[in-house]
Amino acid sequence: MLKLLRFNARTWFFLGFLGCVFLLAMGAYFQFIDGLDPCPLCISQRIAILLTGLVFFSAAIHNPGQAGVTAYAVSGAVTALCGAAISTRHVWIQHLPADKVPECGPGLEYVLQNFPLFETVKLMLSGTGDCAKVDWTMLGLSMPAWTMIAFLMLAILSLLQIWNYKETVR
Question: What distance in Å separates the CA atoms of residue 167 and residue 155, rounded to the nearest whole number?
Answer without folding.
Answer: 19
